[in-house]
Sequence to fold (287 residues):
Amino acid sequence: MMQRFRERPGLRLFSLMLPGGFWLIVFFLIPLAVIGAISFMGRDDLGSPTLPWTTDAYAQAFDPIYLQLFLFSMWLSLLTTLATLIIAMPVALFIARMPKKWRNLMIFLVMIPFWTNFLVRTYALLFLLRANGPMNNILMGVGLIQEPISLLSTPFAVWVGLVYGNLPFMILPLYSSLEKFDWTLIEAANDLGANTVKAFFRVMLPLTAPGLLAGSILTFVPAVGSYITVELMGGGKTTMIGRVIATQFGTAGNWPLGSAMSLILMVIVTLAAVLYFRAGRGERMAL
Fold:
């Protein structure tokens, strides 16, 4: 038996792929097929999915109100990705330039806050942004405002929550790329007349593109479908498409519409990711 197993590489490869393939089929492809089927169903008087097949859910999903929510969610997620990149790049650079013996400690320190419960961290942000919280006190203390302003239940509050929650997903891929970067290339660029800013954009950024692309996708995808952060920080006044989808499956009881919106969101995010990867690949090929 073992001899035949060794002599047949195809069988060996199949056995290695079987656990992952089983997991993919049971927990992704089958649920996706169920969601796809429900999206083409109607609703009975109790709200349960029922036949005959129909495209009413998709027609409803493309209502201007929902399209506006899709666009707003994409826009806020894009701003979240840009903000995490602006914050994460200096942090990753700082860690990558440290002596090797300190790098693991710094990564550990970056990750420590995110080992706590997600809800606890979100409620901590709520405390910081409330009317009598530290943020308003600081702004009044420096004279920027005369009285507390409403920061919660706004797009700004949701954006802050998304940036904070997704920051590690940008820092770690960037650090992984920067750790392998050959810093003598920056010195060579400086010797050839490039200043620090030009060397960063013309040399370092293109060569660390894999980490940048990975971090952007890992940040953008969870942000665009976020629910808990939007629910707590938005307070019902600022919403995104992930919260609307959860409402359709929950209190609204409109599973066909929720399924249709889920599939539309998945297609949009997949297309955006493919275009982003192709653009990044084209830039790397041009170098």
Q: What stands out?
A: The chain has 14 helices and two strands. The mean pLDDT is 86. The chain has one domain: 63-286.
